[in-house]
Backbone:
């Protein structure tokens, strides 16, 4: 039975990617109706995960994998416990309705098939992320969510705003992904764990590890950017440039929850420490307040919801940072409730926009009778978001207040931030779910009507689940929240999940929350004007800062390029050989490795003759009156080297050197005749001194390095290996040829490639038209 589950789990992980592959074809064959067929894939995944509730609720952890890169100890592995199962159910369940919704919302769109592929790839990436156990598997899926979200946010690529939003999301989340990678590599290389299962086994002992703090900061960098914590929150609101189905999925069950998932996943071995309980509440609380204030500033329904998502993510991070079991219980119930009401509200807002032609709150009103199902769904979803009775949101709020009031690791400031933030979210929820449907209907909305079933089935079902989750509290507690809390808190708690009202301090905090929300809703317009004036007075913000950062990097790189790549070949060569000389000489001097130069050289007469020949060639190059003569004289150096090879018993190398040097002289001379160059070197004294100094430094550095190497005791292991195996392994008698062709075949291939590229460049030069000849006026000027 276990083997069957493992096989099916891998198939379920692959299902979204397989569906993405066939999505364009199905769209071409069935039109927008293909969305119902494609929705069968996440629906089947949801049913499969439902079947795993019983073993996971009993305390089992379903895990398996296979070797992906054995030499690097990387496995493709998954881990199914309460936390990953809850997320998998949300990803697949809400994803089912998102696909159905997209079929109706984007009906007639020219690229709907492409959109289906992108959204299914996004679904597969998020599902792989929450199921992954191995660190590198987790990172691959983590980055895949960034890439697929980039494609979805920039789906309407003809608009500059969509392209900018996609780029901003990719830059911020991918930058955080690099932090995550560094943290995971530290866990692997320095701590010695390769998977979440191994890390969880460390428990609280990891807090005593000297690498705890740098790993924590790096992992928080990944989590905070992914879950849009202040000051990285601006990308999430700008992501509203994506089509509404993307917004609904992104904000409810997928990428923005990835950072929260990571924090909950690492809590068993990284939580309950002073840095954890300081950094997370601080950033989470700031994000909660910033998100709610920015939400009330907006008039666009999607932007209001987007900023409340920022606020909700801040609330989840703040509660997770308390490491308080009751507060974390509230966070988990709120996570479930938020996924339901936020996905539904986004789809509801899209339906209003689709049917009324606008989502500007100032232009909406009186749509209740025109769109009754949408109105009912929006009202219930706003009720849940406001934390009112008989919804999951109500219990989540009560639990988090209970934990913040009486739990360890909390302060009155944290409670106050939660109460104010929840109150302002209450106002934002009813601004979206209620105000568009009541009051006087503008004349331009007279044609608005209820949309097709694909537009309202998702919000209606999610609204019902927001209530059913607390009505059937026993199932929610035993099947979903209890196992998830066990995975996060590291123990098996017994949460008292119910819709009962307990008149206590937590309920009093709830009453204060509702009072703040009602007052803010009634005074929404003056509050909006006040916030707008305040934000305009502040001016600068992270969103503008992102543009300034990108512009600064672009201008800075352009300036560096203009300085380094200015088109002056002489400067290129000077910089290159200066760096070479420094790289040769500085290490020898700094580390005291400068070699002892022999006072005398024991050379035979014929060896002195070869050295003299090289010296003659050097003098000929220096005193040459034109470049052509210098090039021919330069060949003398190469011939002298070839003679040295021959004298020391390497005739094959000598022959190669003769051929290369001859060809080099001929090709260089041929190229020089095709280029318009001055016949003689007209550099001034300073230029000659500079170039001569660089040349001498390179020569001295090379000679010193070679002398230092030859002064070391000869290690014959490599030579012995080649001598021993050239015949038995490579079947060759000539050891040099065997080394070049077999043992170092890739080096030889690279050298051949360099020669080929050089030949192509020379061919391009030879195909130039006849060189330009200067006029008499130019000659006289010279």
Residues:
């Amino acid at each position: 039975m276990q083997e069957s589950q493992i096989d099916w789990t891998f198939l379920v992980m692959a299902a979204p990617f397989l569906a993405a592959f066939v999505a364009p074809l199905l769209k071409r064959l069935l039109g927008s109706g293909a969305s119902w067929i494609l929705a069968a894939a996440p629906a089947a995944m949801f049913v499969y995960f439902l079947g795993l509730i019983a073993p996971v609720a009993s305390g089992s952890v379903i895990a398996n994998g296979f070797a992906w890169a054995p030499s690097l100890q990387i496995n493709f592995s998954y881990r199914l416990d309460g936390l990953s199962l809850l997320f998998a159910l949300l990803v697949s369940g809400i994803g089912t309705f998102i696909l159905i919704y997209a079929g109706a919302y984007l009906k007639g769109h020219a690229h709907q098939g492409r959109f289906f592929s992108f959204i299914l790839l996004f679904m597969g990436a998020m599902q792989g992320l929450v199921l992954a156990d191995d660190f590198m598997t987790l990172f691959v899926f983590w980055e895949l969510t960034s890439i697929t979200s980039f494609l979805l946010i920039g789906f309407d690529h003809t608009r500059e705003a969509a392209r900018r939003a996609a780029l901003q999301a990719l830059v911020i989340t991918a930058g955080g992904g690099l932090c995550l990678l560094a943290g995971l590599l530290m866990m692997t290389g320095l701590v010695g764990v390769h998977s979440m299962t191994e890390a969880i086994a460390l428990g609280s002992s990891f807090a005593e590890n000297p690498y705890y703090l740098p790993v924590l900061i790096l992992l928080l960098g990944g989590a905070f950017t992914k879950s849009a914590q202040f000051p990285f929150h601006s990308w999430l609101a700008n992501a509203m440039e994506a089509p509404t189905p993307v917004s609904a999925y992104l904000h409810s069950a997928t990428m923005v929850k990835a950072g929260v998932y990571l924090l909950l996943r690492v809590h068993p071995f990284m939580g309950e420490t002073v840095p954890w309980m300081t950094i997370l509440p601080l950033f989470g609380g700031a994000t909660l307040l910033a998100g709610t204030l920015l939400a009330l500033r907006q008039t666009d329904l999607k932007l209001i919801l987007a900023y409340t998502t920022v606020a909700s993510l801040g609330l989840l991070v703040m509660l997770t940072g308390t490491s308080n079991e009751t507060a974390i219980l509230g966070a988990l119930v709120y996570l479930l409730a938020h996924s339901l009401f936020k996905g539904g509200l986004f789809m509801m807002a899209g339906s209003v926009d689709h049917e009324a032609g606008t989502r500007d709150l100032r232009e909406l009103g009186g749509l209740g009778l025109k769109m009754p199902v949408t109105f009912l769904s929006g009202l219930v979803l706003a009720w849940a978001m406001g934390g009112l009775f008989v919804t999951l949101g109500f219990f989540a709020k009560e639990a988090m207040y209970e934990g913040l009031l009486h739990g360890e690791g909390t302060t009155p400031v944290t409670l106050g931030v939660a109460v104010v933030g929840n109150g302002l979210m209450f106002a934002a929820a009813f601004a979206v779910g209620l105000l568009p449907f009541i009051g006087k209907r503008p004349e331009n909305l007279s044609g608005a009507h209820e949309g097709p079933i694909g537009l309202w089935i998702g919000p209606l079902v999610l609204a019902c689940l927001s209530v059913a989750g607390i009505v059937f509290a026993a199932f929610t507690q035993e099947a979903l929240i209890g196992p998830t809390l066990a995975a996060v808190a590291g123990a098996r708690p017994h949460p008292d999940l119910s819709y009962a009202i307990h008149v206590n301090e937590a309920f009093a905090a709830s009453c204060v929350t509702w009072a703040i929300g009602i007052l803010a809703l009634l005074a929404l317009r003056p509050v909006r004007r006040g916030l707008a004036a305040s934000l305009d007075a502040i001016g600068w913000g992270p969103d503008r800062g992102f543009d300034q950062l990108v512009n600064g990097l672009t201008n800075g790189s352009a300036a560096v390029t203009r300085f380094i790549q200015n088109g002056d070949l002489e400067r290129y060569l000077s910089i290159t050989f200066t760096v070479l000389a420094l790289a040769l000489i500085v290490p020898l001097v700094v580390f005291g490795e400068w070699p002892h130069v022999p006072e005398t050289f024991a050379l035979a007469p014929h060896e002195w003759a070869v050295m003299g020949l090289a010296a003659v060639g050097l003098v000929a190059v220096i005193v040459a009156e034109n470049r052509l003569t210098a090039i021919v004289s330069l060949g003398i150096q190469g011939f002298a080297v070839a003679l040295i090879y021959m004298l020391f018993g390497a005739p094959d190398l000598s022959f190669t050197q003769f051929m290369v040097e001859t060809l080099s002289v001929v090709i260089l001379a041929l190229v020089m005749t095709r280029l318009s160059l001055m016949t003689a070197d007209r550099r001034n004294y300073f230029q000659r001194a500079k170039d001569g100094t660089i040349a001498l430094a390179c020569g001295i550095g090379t000679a010193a390095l070679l002398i230092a190497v030859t002064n070391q005791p000869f290690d014959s292991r490599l030579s012995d290996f080649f001598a021993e195996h050239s015949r038995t392994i490579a079947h060759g008698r000539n050891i040099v040829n065997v080394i070049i062709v077999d043992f170092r075949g890739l080096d030889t291939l690279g050298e051949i490639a360099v020669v080929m590229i050089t030949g192509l460049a020379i061919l391009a030069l030879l195909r130039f038209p006849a060189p330009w000849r200067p006029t008499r006026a130019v000659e006289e000027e010279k």
In short: Confidence is low (pLDDT under 50) at residues 1-6, 776-782. The two ends are 91 Å apart (CA to CA). Residues 535-566 form one domain. DSSP finds 33 helices and two strands in the chain.
